[in-house]
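cache lookup: miss for this entity combination. No prior model stored, computing from scratch. Input as submitted by user K.M.:
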Amino acid sequence: MTSRDRILERIRAGAHHQVPRPRLPEAPAPEGDLLELLQDNLTLAAASHQRCSTQELPAAVAAYLQRNQLPAKLWVSDEAGLVDFHHPDIELHHESPGAETSAALTGALAGIAETGSLVLHSGADRRTALNFLADHHLVVLPVRSVVACIEDAWPLLRELPDWPRTVNIITGPSRTADIEQTIQMGAHGPRSLHILLVH
Amino acid sequence: MKSTSVHFHANARAALNDPVLQDALKRLKAGFVVKRREALEGLPDFPAMREAASALKKHILDHLDIYLEQYEAAVRRQGGEVHWAEDAEQARRIVADLCQRQGLRRVLKGKTMVGEEVGLNEELEAAGLEVVETDLGEYIIQLAKEPPSHIIAPAIHKTRGQVGELFSNAHDNDMSGANAPELVAEARRVMRRHFLAGEVGITGANFLIAETGSNIIVTNEGNGDLSATLPKMHIVVAGIEKVVPTLEDATLLLRILARSATGQRMTSYTTLHTGPKRTSDRDGPNAYHVVLVDNGRSRMLTGPYRDMLHCIRCGACLNHCPVYGAIGGHAYGWVYPGPMGSVLTPLITGLDQAASLPQASSLCGRCEAVCPVAIPLPRMLRELRFDGFDQGHVSGRGLLRTWAFLACRPRLYRRISSLLLAAARGLARRGWLPALPGTGAWRRARDLPAPAAQSFSDWWRRRQ
Amino acid sequence: MSSTVGLLVTCLADLYRPQAGIATVQLLEEAGFRVVFPDQTCCGQPGYNAGDRDSARAIAQRVIAAFEGCEAIVAPSGSCTGMLRLHYPQLFRDDLSWQGKATEFAARSFELLEFLDLHAPELAPPPFPFRTAWHESCSNLRELNRGGAGPRWLKRIPELELCAAGDPEVCCGFGGSFAVKFADISGRMVDDKARGFEEAGAEALVGNDIGCLLNIAGRAHRRGYPLRVHHVAELLAGTAADDPGLGGVR
């Protein structure tokens, strides 16, 4: 008998396959405009955001870097929608991010209005490390990709051709309260999270 | 980790007399209790969600074998491997072997309570590996060579000044007198080097999803994600009770977990990891292993402690426990403190090693009231007291039996109590009793009023 | 014919605060009930909470038998009512012959204020001219779900100034033998509690569990904080205003 067998045997002594599966409570159905709710909840989660058109995106990113006194360098994801991203004043990097990565630009599969969260996933045209190693994480979210609640994100993931190795649901910047219970941003991941809501 | 729960009394006394710890514990209330209350005010359905979560956990435990097998098959489909550990030692060995077989030496650890439970770090370090705790709180206590004092805020007992000293000694920087932002920046700077050099990432799991074979980790710092993404190998260590059937089931539990723990609606990072990196992926580990840890859990499925396996490790029972609030986590002597720890510790390490823990509660019931999965913690503490009494771990048995003997004989009881009342009355001064034999413990913190001149029973009999 | 109510006075009120029992009798009789006081000692909670299930069962069987024939059992205590109502059925969950009796007994058991809410809602208590805080006991709050019932009664007492103090969700640290076995921890808890009442400027403390009240009165006395401590029945029956309270000199 293997350890697996022994553990399962002990479990079977107490698992009788009788307790029915309960009905889960209905997913929350937020009232009003989802985009507005998302924006409110992004702010609550300490993420900043702005709205812009696809054409305005490069200028908006450049202005963000300038506003935050960041080097004019950007580690950019290669996913569809960002492949063609360029701005004359910004030096673009497509290699792995590292200690020097001041800002990263990625897309997102969806935005969740209920919680102010973004759903990102790994793949052949993107790097999960971008979501965590940059000081500033800029995320492009098409306004049509806003969903109401967490449950609405799962079908979008199930529809992907392959289930991704990594799914990141990101709600605000990295933070810690491990020193005297005071919240500090930028523990190990991004200090700032900025969402560009693109229409 | 070796338990010192047998020394609970001495541990507790030391904690009560530690002014630094007492300062830290005062922050607990503002930090966690208030934030949880605010978060739940925005969730009117919480009682219904709590009930549903509890019913879901009951269903899962009753089908635990099925869901674990489903989960295992799903992990394999995605190219991961599942290992089963019956006890702490086997869990440690599996993890150490996985690292050593591949010749991987630099280990990054995300926060894992089950890792603490099985004593992972000691084993890995003994095997010559370099282990770095990457959660800031865990890193602090790793430098201090201490166990966690809280399941979600492991270094809650440490002050800024103490952290500064620990950093000054361990790093090449003088951090004494640093403020909180400076300390966080310092940890970030030092940890970056470790992240980029790490070869193995070990994380825990808040949930295991049978449907997809994913593990979910819920964090705020991002250290768990970096530990799971940058190294060559990702090892997940998780208790067998962590499995849930579907993502929708996990969603219900996610909604109550962060609110109960930190008062957040969602933590910064809720991450699903499923298998190793796909061949075409730009990053991620080449190997993905899950170690499913039993360590006493399957035994708990039969008998009165089954509901303890509902626990989602939110820490709300610690934050609201007046005993935890008075003495902090270390006094409990092992990995899990507070009410959930007072149940789990004797069940995992043996009641003879932790007989005081179930007794060290006023059974005020606040833990059960705040538990998001409605675990009847006071009932379990009582059950452990029954077991402890039956196994001879309860002091004062003679006194209890004498009391019970008298309590079953009202007339004798009345006669003896009348004698005691008369004696006490003779000794009373201005309505209060002086130091008398047997009153020492009570009188350590408070005075003892003199009993009445005439008991109610005597009054009643005269009245008739 | 009036209904018969059995009084379970509780061991602590019997020895430490007979005034609470006497006031309870007065209130029940004024509400039109015939009060009986069967032979009794204690509800069995000390043994039960210490893990001595056999002793607790033996005592519970005596209590259940003693109150046979009473239409209701009233206890001036949240904690003892919790024992009768919730824990007696638990004690006999594996004993078919007693399970039914314990469940039936539990259904007839009431905490005093709960009983008055049902049967004497019009009761008009006399004045009590003190700044008064209510102590919410844990069993009252979480076992009986009767949080807030005490303050509602206090608000009906003329000249009583009700003051909110501390966090009513937090235990005073009594917990029966817990107060003695873990005297240091309990001492910290009761100090927090007593300080809360002191900081709120309470002149009187009122509750429905003598155990908690002994604990807090004892700590207040040690702190040198003059606090009159009464069972709520004494206020409702009108015997508290001229009585110095627990530990007071008569």
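stored under new cache key. The longest helix of chain C spans residues 183-199.
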